[in-house]
Structure formats: C-alpha cells, structure tokens
C-alpha cells in the first residue's frame, strides 16, 4: 500500500495487512515502509529503526434507534486514514474509528497521537503529514474510487427521435460491423453501435463514438447491463459515466421495459430467448450456484482494472509446488535478506504475493452471526476476501509500456514476461522456472539438395495451431451460418451458437507438419533456395504449458478470434513428438555462413540507419498496437523504419508479418557481420569487441553462462541467432585464457562463474502429462475481454474469477486459451 505524503516520501507496505486487520499496520518513520505485526519485529532487528507509527481501524456495529434501524448517517470525525480497505464506509450497519500512535521499539513504548505537548514540532508535522495524506492509488485510478456518478446535464431535456425504432430483447449487432459484444444504444436515435475496448474492458471498433461525432447525440446505454435497478450510461459530451434519472422513460421510447430486463454480470442478457451458450456464460459458469471456497490456496485476487490476465497467471503459477517452495517456503530467508527497500525487490514481492494466496489469512468464511444476519435480511451473498496485487503489478510491469498500463493484455505474453523476471532474479542456484524450460529441435531441409541442418533452441511453452479445416461438425457450422444471416436480415433472435469442434489430434498434427522457410539460404548451393522446417521436442519439460493460437487477422487486417471447442484431455501423451536427431542416410548442410550483403536500395538503407531503442516513437507504436498487431512487432516496425511514422511502420508490418520471428522481442545484434560494422554507431564495440549487454542478458536468461554467451557473440559478430547455433555446436566449450584474463580486468569479473558452463537447464523425462490448470479468455482479442483460471485442487476443479473463488461445477476445458500440464512419473 502506498500513501503519498506531501512533506515526506511515500510509505509502502511490503506485506499484505491493512489497518483494519488484526494487529493493524506499523509504518517506519524513517523509511515509511509499512509492516504487519508479524513482520515489524523483523524489520526492527534488521535495520535498528525503532520509531514506528501504529495505525489501527476499529469496526463496530452502529447504535440502533428506537425502531431498530441504525441511527441516521452523519460524518464520522474519527475517520482520518485515506486507505484502501475492504469496508464500505457508508454502511448503514457499521461505524469506524481510526487510531494512531507512535511505538518505540524494543520496549513498545506508546505515545498516542496527536500529542503536541510531548513531541517535537518536526515529529508532529511528520505525523500529521502521514495521517492526512491521500493514497496515490486514488490519484492513479480516480474512477475506481468515485462514490457517486454525476447526473448527466443532458438527461432532463434529452431529445428522442420518433423514428419507429424498436430494440429486440436479444440478437443485437453493431450497425456498422459484425461485433456482438460491447454494444451501446444511443438514446436519441436508437442506433446500436460498438464501443471502444478501453471503455469497459470489452472489444469494439469505436463506432458508437464515431456516431456521436457525426450526429452529436450525447447519451448511450450499454446493452446487456439494463436491469430494474438501472444500467451503464455514458455521456460522450461529458466524457464520463453518468446517471440518467429518466432512463426508464428513455428506454421505453425504443420498446424496452426496464422492469422485465435482467442483466448478467458480464453484460449479456439472461432471458428465455438467448440460450446460455456464449463463451462468457460457459467459461464463467454463469447461472450455476457455485459454492465459495475458503482457506489456504483458495484466495482470490482483486481486479485492479484489466488485471485479470495477471491474476490468472499467478494463480496457476503458485499452484505449482516448485514455485511454492522457492518463494513461500523461503519466506523467512527472503524477508531477512531483502534490500532496505523491499518494494523494489522481485523475490520479496513474489514471496509476499505467494504467501497471501497460500496462507489462507485472506480467505476466511463469514462468521455464523453474519450468515444469520444475511438470511434475516434476505440478501445472502457469498463473501470473498481476496488480496489486492497493486504493489506486485506495479513492480513487475515497471518500464514495460503495455503491462504498466491499465489496458487488457495477453496472458501468454505476461507468462513469458514473468518467466524472464524469475530467470533474472533467481534465488541462489534455485530457479523454479526450470520446470517450464525445454529444448526444441528444428530440422531445416534444403528442398533442392535434400541436405539437412539440425539446431536446438530453448522454449517455455508449446504454441498449438487451431486446425479449423479439421472441424468434425462442418455441416452444422454451414447450417448455423445460413440461419444466422437470415435472422440478422429479418431482425429475429439469433439461433443457438454452434462452435467448430476441433480434435486435439488435428492440432498436434498441424504442429508437427513441415512449414516453408522464407528466404532460406542453402549453404550447399551457396544461394537462396526453397526450404522446409519441422519442429520436435528435444526434451520434455516437467510442466508443459500449451497455448492455443486462437487469435489471427482477417482479410481486412482486423484481429479475430477462433471461437472453437477443442477436446483437451485430462491425460496427454506427446511422446510421438520426441526429436530423433540426424537419421541414417541424411546428409548435413555445410557449416557455412551466408555472405554479408549490404543493400543499396532506399528501404534497406533506412533499415541500416539504426536508432537508439530508447528513442523509439512510442506514439507510433501504440497506434499500431491499437490496430491489433503484437506490441513487439510494432516496436520493431517503428525501429527499423527509423521513426518515420505509423504509416511507414505499417507498411513494414505488412511485408514482414509472415516471418516466424515477427512477434519476437526487438534485439540489437545486427545482421551477421553487419553488427560489428554498425557497432561504432552505438559505441558498443571497441578494441575488446564487447557485445551489447542486452544481447548477453537474453542468452544468459536462457540458462547459459555469461562468459559462454560473450564468447559465442564475439565468434559470430554479435549475431544472436548465430551465437545460439555456436553454443549448441560447441558443447565442449572451454574458457580461453585470454578471455578470462580480459574479463578479470574489467568490472564484471566478479560475476564469472568458476564452474564449467553447461547447456540450458532442462528437466527431461517422458512426454505423458496430466491437466491441472487452464486459463480461459472471453472477448474478441487479447487486448479486450476477461480472463479466468480453473485449477484442480484436492481432486476437484476450482474456478478463480478475480477475487471470487468457488468450486467448479462444469469446468469448460474445451474453451481454454492456456493449459498447464504436469508430468506423470513413469
């Protein structure tokens, strides 16, 4: 938790307790770090800091009036802490009182606050500044903390056109595109149009906003949120969510009776006309009475606004014993040896989050008296505690242009980002991400000479293509599409959704089939030739992560998602995908590098005028990203076109989007020997031919030794791809004497390992697995929608939907996006 103090630095809470938790919160008056009662003693012993401010919020039932109800609300002058708590400060049943005092360790001598008589003036000023400060989370997310929506100034005199428009109870579609989610009804002319994805975490092409700009009609209501109690109303003119006190009248103008509308949590209609088969309903198990789960391992994570991708990944990761042992199992040691500012330490933040998820302290069932009171009031609702991962998200996403935003992200990309952070911040020799790492054998064959080359690369997940052509219900799909189009034309309710049913075997077959290699240079021919590549597992990981490649682009370059059903099994056997290496009768391609060609045309000259990566025009990057292209591809497009603008970069994307490394992160190795020629531009290469540090970091993050990475880069003129080939082709690598002497003479000598370098750390074994978790995505693209996670615990499936954790009744294993399998011991 952060509290910004005008006169002092912000104080941060490296542990999870809040002032209203048992024991309260202790704030170090020197560092302004905050601790729960169980950790403040550790901080005192470690730092010697002895003065802490103890903050405690007391919660009491309100005094009842003569009629039995609570006394009328009045401002509570005893509340002075502006903190992020779970309690509703406007509750009719409870009142709150904040208490603050200084505590002097080790004797726990207490001084009540305020205390002008006993404390020096500077101490009093510092205490007052802490107590009166505003939480920066309220400043960062003002909409999240808004108590009441304003009434729109257009509501009272809203003009509604008498154009005969009537809105059906279901079957809505944007009037300008084919989208059926995130639809908004304009309250002036009855137009149904899609919103922008950042309005409410749903996908859209912004046609509702375009309509406002064309016509000036200010108010719109989101279809699917209409209930007898109200709906989501947005004012384009006022640029915020608003209240419409005459909403029932405005909706009745278009034939909508609010009293008979019932919106579901995800914004879809729950009525007899629309069958409950949409992915939102099926994945979230809507309409079922799910039993809440409490205790260790059943703690949810609160949604911070499009943070569900992070929550789902972290729930799956911390269900793995190796991650539990590495962080939560080492909690005392990690906390004891954390830096003075633990908020900036990855291992401390991972441990803190893991402890919150696994301890059970933040997932407790309601007490019996609360249940009885809820039943008496006929308003029983399951209570879900959950924890807020604000500090963890702030740390792991810092300096990342996408994860640091409040926009929705790709869970697969965040998973790889997390693995990279774990690799860089390993705890001694222990690295829990080793359980995901495996080697892929790539076999490339020259189609003309039939000669082959075998290489290996490191990977952390299996990307499985969707074999749409193998659908087993093609006749049903054709019939459904015809019926759907007819219903749209006649404005009738849409038929029940029919999904393509894809066998997993077809997807595995598509994964293993040869693919063409563009611009393949045959070392046997010393020229470009046709080439094909096949991939196999050179090793099987202990935990196999499978991503279903559901996202693609249509002919109009609009991102699309395959809404398909794949029969993902509980038991998976992929032993048939084991690599076999060079086979008898196969002849290897000569180990000759392609010649370095410096092109003369303007396009390639532009690509060689490299810019500093820190100077990439982020506005152009975001323009391209909003079109649905992968972020890293957008960064490369802007980089390789020399910051010439989004239009020029877009042309680069069109030309290169079929390349296998299209969405790979931007690296600076140059092209073959061109790196050394261009190194002087960056000042990277001097007499010692030192490779760029960012390329070294990429190779070491794969598990190779730093000195091995540097020597491989030097031998290949700083080419990342060729350096990896060099490492795999030199398994007998030994440090050369000149290299070691040179490294001992520079400032990095202390990080050279004395042990002989080994290959990447892999935990090979049989390729038989059991499913234990999967992450599902709802929405039209990875930049919109919602993620939830299902995990199998203690023999039954559990659904983790943000802070809500319940026993799953029908886990939708066929609709997942990422699947987590654990190896079955042989």
TrEMBL record:
Sorted alphabetically, which SUPFAM superfamilies does this protein's record hold?
Answer: Cysteine proteinases, RING/U-box, UBA-like
| Top enzyme class | hydrolase
Q: Single GO molecular-function term? A: cysteine-type endopeptidase activity
Q: Which InterPro entries match?
A: Papain-like_cys_pep_sf, Peptidase_C19_UCH, Ub_carboxyl-term_hydrolase, UBA, UBA-like_sf, Ubiquitinyl_hydrolase, UBP13_Znf-UBP_var, USP
Tell me where the transmembrane regions lie.
none
**Residue span, UBP-type domain:** 150-258
Q: Give me any GO biological process, just one.
A: protein deubiquitination
Which positions are annotated as binding Zn(2+)?
174, 177, 194, 207
Q: PROSITE patterns per the record?
A: UBA, USP_1, USP_2, USP_3, ZF_UBP
Which reactions appear under catalytic activity for this entry? Thiol-dependent hydrolysis of ester, thioester, amide, peptide and isopeptide bonds formed by the C-terminal Gly of ubiquitin (a 76-residue protein attached to proteins as an intracellular targeting signal)
Q: Which UniProt keywords apply?
A: Autophagy, Cytoplasm, Hydrolase, Isopeptide bond, Metal-binding, Phosphoprotein, Protease, Repeat, Thiol protease, Ubl conjugation, Ubl conjugation pathway, Zinc, Zinc-finger
Q: What is its EC number?
A: 3.4.19.12
**Start and end residues of each UBA domain:** 615-656, 690-730
One GO CC term of this entry? cytoplasm
Q: Which residues form the USP domain?
A: 299-824
Active site, UniProt feature: 308 (nucleophile), 786 (proton acceptor)
Give the residues annotated as coiled coil: none
Where does the record place it? Cytoplasm
Q: Give the protein's biological function.
A: Deubiquitinating enzyme that removes conjugated ubiquitin from specific proteins to regulate different cellular processes.
Family note: Belongs to the peptidase C19 family.
Q: How does it assemble?
A: Interacts with UFD1. Interacts (via UBA domains) with SIAH2 (when ubiquitinated). Interacts with BAG6; the interaction is direct and may mediate UBL4A deubiquitination. Interacts (via UBA 2 domain) with AMFR; the interaction is direct. Interacts with UBL4A; may be indirect via BAG6. Interacts with NEDD4.
Name of the molecule in the record? Ubiquitin carboxyl-terminal hydrolase
Q: Which gene encodes it?
A: USP13
């Amino acid at each position: 938790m952060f509290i910004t103090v005008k006169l002092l630095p912000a104080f941060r809470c490296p542990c999870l307790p809040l002032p209203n938790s048992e024991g309260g919160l202790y704030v170090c008056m020197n560092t302004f770090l905050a601790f729960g009662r169980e950790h403040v003693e550790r901080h005192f012993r470690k730092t010697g800091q002895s003065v802490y401010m103890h903050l405690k919020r007391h919660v009491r039932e309100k005094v009842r009036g003569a009629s039995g109800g609570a006394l009328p609300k009045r401002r509570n002058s005893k509340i002075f802490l502006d903190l992020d708590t779970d309690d509703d400060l406007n509750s009719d049943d409870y009142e709150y009182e904040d208490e603050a005092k200084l505590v002097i360790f080790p004797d726990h001598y207490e001084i009540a606050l305020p205390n002008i008589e006993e404390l020096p003036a500077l101490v009093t000023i510092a205490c007052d500044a802490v107590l009166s400060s505003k939480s920066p989370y309220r400043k960062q997310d003002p909409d999240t903390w808004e108590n009441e929506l304003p009434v729109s100034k257009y509501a009272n005199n809203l003009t509604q056109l008498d154009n005969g428009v009537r809105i059906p109870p279901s079957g809505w579609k944007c009037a300008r595109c084919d989208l059926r989610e995130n639809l908004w009804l304009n309250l002036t002319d009855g137009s149904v149009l899609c919103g922008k994805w950042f309005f409410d975490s749903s996908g859209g092409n912004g046609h509702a906003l375009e309509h406002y700009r064309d016509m000036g009609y200010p108010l719109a209501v989101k279809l699917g949120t209409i209930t007898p109690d109200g709906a989501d109303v947005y004012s384009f003119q006022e640029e915020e969510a608003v209240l419409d006190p005459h909403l029932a009248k405005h909706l009745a103008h278009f034939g909508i009776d609010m009293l008979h509308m019932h919106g579901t949590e995800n914004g879809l209609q729950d009525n007899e006309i629309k069958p409950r088969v949409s992915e939102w309903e099926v994945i979230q198990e809507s309409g079922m009475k799910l039993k809440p789960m409490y205790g260790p391992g059943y703690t949810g994570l609160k949604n911070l606004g499009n943070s569900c991708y992070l929550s789902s990944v972290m729930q799956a990761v911390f269900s793995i014993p190796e991650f539990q042992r590495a962080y939560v199992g080492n909690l005392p040691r990690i906390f004891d040896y954390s830096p003075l500012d633990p908020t900036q330490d990855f291992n401390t933040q991972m441990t803190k989050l893991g402890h919150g998820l696994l301890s059970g302290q933040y997932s407790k069932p309601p007490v019996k008296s609360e249940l009885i009171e809820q039943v008496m009031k006929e308003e029983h609702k399951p209570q879900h505690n959950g924890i807020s991962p604000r500090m963890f998200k702030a740390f792991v996403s810092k300096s990342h242009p996408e994860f640091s935003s409040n926009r929705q992200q790709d869970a697969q990309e965040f998973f790889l980002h997390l693995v990279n952070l774990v690799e860089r911040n390993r705890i001694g020799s222990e690295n829990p991400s080793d359980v995901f790492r495996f080697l892929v054998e790539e076999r490339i064959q020259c189609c003309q000479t039939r000669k082959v080359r075998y290489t290996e690369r490191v990977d952390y997940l299996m990307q499985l293509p969707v074999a749409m052509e193998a659908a087993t219900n093609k006749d049903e799909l054709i019939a459904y599409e015809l019926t759907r189009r007819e219903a749209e034309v006649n404005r009738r309710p849409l038929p029940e959704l029919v999904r393509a049913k894809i066998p997993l075997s077809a997807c595995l077959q598509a994964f293993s089939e040869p693919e063409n290699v563009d611009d393949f240079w045959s070392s046997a021919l010393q020229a470009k030739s046709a080439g094909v590549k096949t991939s196999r597992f050179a090793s099987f990981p202990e935990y196999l992560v499978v991503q279903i490649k559901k996202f693609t682009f249509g002919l109009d370059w609009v991102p699309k998602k395959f809404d398909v059903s794949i029969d993902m099994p509980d038991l998976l056997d992929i032993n048939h995908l084991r690599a076999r290496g060079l086979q008898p009768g196969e002849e290897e391609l000569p180990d000759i590098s392609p010649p370095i060609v410096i092109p003369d045309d303007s396009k390639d000259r532009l690509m060689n005028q490299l810019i500093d990566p820190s100077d990439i025009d982020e506005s152009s990057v975001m323009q391209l990203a909003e079109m649905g292209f992968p972020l890293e591809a957008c960064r490369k497009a802007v980089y390789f076109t020399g910051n010439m603008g989004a239009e020029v970069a877009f042309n680069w994307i069109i030309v290169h989007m079929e390349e296998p490394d299209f969405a790979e992160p931007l690296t600076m190795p140059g092209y073959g020997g061109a790196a050394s020629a261009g190194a002087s531009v960056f000042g990277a290469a001097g007499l010692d031919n030192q490779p760029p540090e960012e390329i070294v970091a990429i190779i070491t993050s794969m598990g190779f030794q730093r000195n091995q990475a540097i020597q491989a880069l030097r031998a290949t003129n700083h080419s990342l791809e060729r350096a990896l080939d060099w490492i795999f082709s030199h398994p007998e690598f030994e440090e050369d004497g000149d290299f070691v002497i040179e490294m001992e003479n520079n400032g990095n000598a202390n990080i050279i390992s004395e042990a002989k370098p080994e290959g990447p750390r892999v935990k090979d074994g049989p390729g038989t697995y059991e499913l234990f978790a999967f992450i599902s995505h709802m929405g039209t693209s990875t930049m919109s929608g919602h993620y939830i996670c299902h995990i199998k615990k203690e023999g039954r499936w559990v659904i983790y939907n943000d802070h809500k954790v319940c026993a799953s009744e029908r886990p939708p294993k066929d609709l997942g996006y990422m699947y987590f399998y654990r190896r079955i011991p042989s």
